[in-house]
Amino acid sequence: MTIMISAQPVEIPGMLEARGISATRQRREIARVLLGKAQHVTAEQLMDELALHGQAISKATVYNTLKLFVDKGLLREVHVDATRTVYDTTTTPHHHFYNADSGQLSDIPLEEVAITALPNPPEGTVSEGVDVIVRIRNR
Amino acid sequence: MTIMISAQPVEIPGMLEARGISATRQRREIARVLLGKAQHVTAEQLMDELALHGQAISKATVYNTLKLFVDKGLLREVHVDATRTVYDTTTTPHHHFYNADSGQLSDIPLEEVAITALPNPPEGTVSEGVDVIVRIRNR
DNA sequence: TTAATTGCAAACATTTTGCAGGTTC
DNA sequence: GAACCTGCAAAATGTTTGCAATTAA
């Protein structure tokens, strides 16, 4: 049996510091689990995942950290379901399929959607971005 | 002072029955407040509005009725904010501006958005529709 | 008169908060 | 050692549920 003590890449603390996030143990752990691969995760799924690896982190800290990572541009929130917030590790602009049957989200690369007409934002406002959600259902 | 007792159009009960909804007092009242004009309303706003007209309806019934109206195609749910469900009285396909500062939603008519490329839905799924949300911010 | 509907209060689920104790620089 | 961070438990929010009383067909 192999015992893995802190098998995290050296890059993680650096990546956090680069965003002005001090790299505490909990934040490194969450970064290791979440970042580095494209995925959509809820707070609960993250807590389960952490617990599975014997790295349980309190609810408060998980929520604090998710919010911090969103503020610092490491994560994006996606709202498709009224009940929970999904955190998306892909922070560059892109779109989503949302499977209404399974609740699953999947990414659509930006270049696969072409929007050739859009109205101007109302007076006094500026556009921050466009989200396209293609609602799908199992056949 | 004018006392208005049940100043609702005759059409409402008919509109409800046409959808297989029996027209109870509460449902007629909610239909009267909501339907017939394009708007975006939360459950709480609806309850406040009803209370304001001396027609308070219990939370359970408001939620039951909103869900019923959605099932029967009189309303659409919109999810832009993690915390609450917004009910949209416009049930035909269209898109939205979402003001992240004020939380305000506004409609974009279908024809003002042109999408000229979209990927095919994943194997085993079919598309149910496309929602475009233009996130805006006060200048 | 039988089934459907309502309303209350309690239950739920997710997220936030207050604060005491720990950690970091 | 000062500021920041964590974790617990409790609070807050929005929504749902169980069930007895009421209303509708």
Q: Layout of helices and strands, plus pairs?
A:
Two copies of one chain form a homodimer.
Chain A: H1 11-18, H2 25-34, E1 40-42, H3 43-52, H4 59-71, E2 76-78, E3 86-88, E4 94-99, E5 105-109, E6 114-117, E7 125-138
Chain A binds a DNA duplex (25 and 25 nucleotides) through helix 2 and helix 4.
List the keywords:
alpha+beta, DNA-binding, homodimer, 139 residues, Arc Repressor Mutant, subunit A, three-stranded antiparallel sheet, three-stranded mixed sheet, 2 domains
Secondary-structure element pattern of chain A, one letter each: HHEHHEEEEEE
In terms of DSSP E residues, the strand content of chain A is 25-35%
Mean pLDDT of chain A: 91
For the secondary structure, the number of strands of chain A is 7
Tell me the structural class of chain A.
Answer: alpha+beta
What does the main sheet of chain A amount to? 3 strands, antiparallel
Oligomer: homodimer
The chain pair forming the largest interface, with residue counts per chain, is:
A-B, 38 and 38 residues
CATH topology term of the largest domain in chain A: Arc Repressor Mutant, subunit A
Overview of the molecule:
The structure is a homodimer of 139-residue chains. Chain A is 29% helix and 27% strand. The first copy, chain A, is an alpha+beta fold. Chain A folds into 2 domains: 2-85, Winged helix-like DNA-binding domain superfamily/Winged helix DNA-binding domain (Arc Repressor Mutant, subunit A, Orthogonal Bundle), CATH 1.10.10.10; 92-136, no CATH class. Chain A has a 3-stranded antiparallel β-sheet. A 3-stranded mixed β-sheet of chain A has the order 5-4-7, with no helix packed on it. Chain A is globular and about 50 Å long. The interface between A and B is large, with 38 and 38 residues. Chain A binds a DNA duplex (25 and 25 nucleotides) through helix 2 and helix 4.
